[in-house]
Amino acid sequence: MSAKRAVDVIPDEALTRKPRRSPFTAISDKFNQVFPPYRTYLGRSRKFMLCAAVGTLFILFGLIIGLAVGLTQGSHKTKNLPLPSNAEKHTGDLTYYEPGLGACGITSSSSENIVAISYSVFDAVQVGSNPNANPLCGKKLRATRFNDQAGSQRSVDLTVVDRCVGCKPTDIDTTTSVFKQLANIDQGRVLVTWAWLDVQV
Coiled-coil annotation: which residues (predicted)? Predict the structure, then answer.
């Protein structure tokens, strides 16, 4: 009597089961349905449009990063400027000029105790396009220096009315009347120490 060989029985559901598809394949098929590869888009092939879209995304990403870095650096630079929020004393060059109509919209004379501050400080707090509305206009600072000619320490309170294009951040430009109180007018340029009397912009 011959032995019968056992035959494995395969369930019907196993015969009809479809192979699993990867998520990537499903997404690719869906994309091809929405954007068939044989069509043109705005007169261009799908491949060209995809490359253009990816390139645009990279450019936007670069611009966002650049803007973020620029804002961060700008914030650090502002912190280092001698603004009224900085209560420290600052040392810079003192010069004089012939005033007139200043950036703050105020007309001044050479006999007044007024001052032009560095453009970098003035522009750092500028809001809008009208310099007359700059928050620093009308702010006061005190300039102090030992006057060799007078043999004593002199201090003068000054009101901001203008911006000085040729001044470094801690330089100040004032009138001949003020300069004479702090130094010999013939010196033209001397070191001076100054500080804001208003502690906030």
Answer: none
Residues 46 and 129 in one domain: no
Q: Are residues 76 and 97 in the same domain?
A: no
pTM across the whole model: 0.61
Cα 200 from Cα 101, distance rounded (Å) = 25
For residues 105 and 41, state if they share a domain. Answer: no
**Percent of the chain that is helix, strand, coil (3-state, to 5):** 35, 25, 40
The 10s digit of each residue's pLDDT in 96-117 is 999 999 999 999 999 999 999 9
**Which single residue is written with the structure tokens 């004593």?**
152
Residues in the chain: 201
d(CA 76, CA 101): 32
For residue 98, the enclosing domain spans 90-196
Phi-psi region of 24 (alpha: psi -120 to 50; beta: other; left: phi over 0): alpha
- Quote the Cα angle for 96-77-175, to 5°: 10
Task: State the CATH number of the domain containing residue 180.
Answer: 2.40.40.10
**Of 111, 116, 108, which Cα lies nearest the Cα of 136?**
116
